[in-house]
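Encode chain A's predicted structure.
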Amino acid sequence: MTETSWDELIDRFIVHLKSIRHYSEHTLRAYATDLLQFIEFIASYDLEDLGQIKKAHLRSFLGKLNSSGYGSRSINRKIACIRSFFKFLSLKQYIVHNPSINLFSLKTARKLPPNLRYQMIVEAICMTDSSTFIGARDRAILEMFYGTGIRLHELASLTIANVDFRNGLVRVTGKGSKERVVPIGSIALEALKLYLEKRAEVVDPLQKEATHLFLSIHGTKLTERSIQYRVAKYLKQVASSKETYPHVLRHSFATHLLNEGADLLAVKELLGHSNLSTTQIYTHVSSEHLKKIYKQAHPRAEKKH
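Encoded structure for chain A:
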């Protein structure tokens, strides 16, 4: 199809996203998968050159996704990937005309993020056995997720040096390699200190990955998948199967802060959101909480017949 193979173009595109745009490994893997799916579809047209790809081809691809049962959110991610890919091809002059210009995302209903009641989170945390290395580590992980609201990949990449125990702060590297400083409550700090004490008993501090905060019992950095598994182990005891991933604790962190009157802009900074509109979805959850209180407490909230 072109002197430069599809595999080479994808590799160069992924390197561009990683080095220039600082995309996460999760997003890079997803984009690579999306592009392979798109290329497989385009191959059926037997085009001779990249420049022959038209908007009609892109729309046909999206139509096939829709008829195959893909949801609007999944399709929108693939649209974002395709737009970014063709923008890259245009920038590097692999193509003259960009067929993805004015390729718009589908409208999606904004779902309220699930969150857990405070008591449910406390119950899950109390299931950990802090007398053991693994139990103390898992407790610290749960406390950090709920106590700081950080993302999974942010927690997984933490080092011991990122934690300022004296001032109760943690330096986090978020999306786009942007750093922010987040406060840690005293309970989470105590859980971290206990974990590090237990860790010192079983992990050699001179091991290669010992600078990372959360380690396996073998002294290796705990992977995101392993952290997800450990969190689910406890949350599934108190919540539904759809509420057992680390992000639920982040959602709960934000919702509980707003329910207690926290400033929206402050919550935005704590979460590391680039746009306030991303944080505002939590105000819907908070509004539901306020309406519930209103109906329960106000004598004229609902008509009585």
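The first strand starts at residue 163 and ends at 164.
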